[in-house]
Amino acid sequence: MKLLFKQRMFSWFDSYDIFYEDGTVAYRVKGELSWGHCLRIFDAAGNFVGTVKEKVLTWFPKFELYVGNAYAGMVRKKWSWFRPKYIFECNDWNVQGDFFEWDYRIVSASRGLVATIGKELLHWTDTYMIDVVNPADALLALMFTLAIDAEKCSRN
Question: How far is Cα 67 from Cα 113, in angstroms, rounded to an integer?
Fold first, then answer.
């Protein structure tokens, strides 16, 4: 299952549209005014499905994940020399990016490859292609993509 992640060009807060391969809307993401990034995720029908919320005043970036209103876990960045590394503290997923921080692989210790995320270049706004092996993992893969984009935005 592939999702196209596109940031909206004109918005006061971070806003994104996520599309299926056929061009139909899968999710809409709306940023909220908060201390740190707070991104609320809605399905195509406009139903609230989750939140990615940045923890502030930490040594390394951390993002809390909520599916609906229930806390699902946290994504945190690990210290590394040349390639970014992240850990999901809600399951056995590990993430490693490439040197330029454009491409990522999400791998489960028990199931193997979960998803690949690639940043598409030559676009006016941040655009990623998310390729998820199991469609049930799509929401968490999207949440991770939102977290890395927010972390890059905070860093720059």
Answer: 22
pLDDT value at residue 18: 95
DSSP calls for 124-135: SS-EEEEEESSG
**Rounded CA separation 19/59 (Å):** 34
Rounded Cα distance between 69 and 48, Å, is 9
User: What is the pTM for the complete model shown?
Assistant: 0.85
Alpha-carbon distances, residue 26 vs 41, 140, 154 (angstroms): 10, 14, 26
- Strands (E) across 91-133 are located at 93-97, 103-108, 112-119, 127-132
Question: CB of 49 within 8 A of CB of 41?
Answer: yes
pLDDT, one tens digit per residue, over 86-143 is 888 888 888 888 877 789 999 999 999 999 999 888 767 778 999 999 999 999 999 9
Contact 120, 129 (CB under 8 A): yes
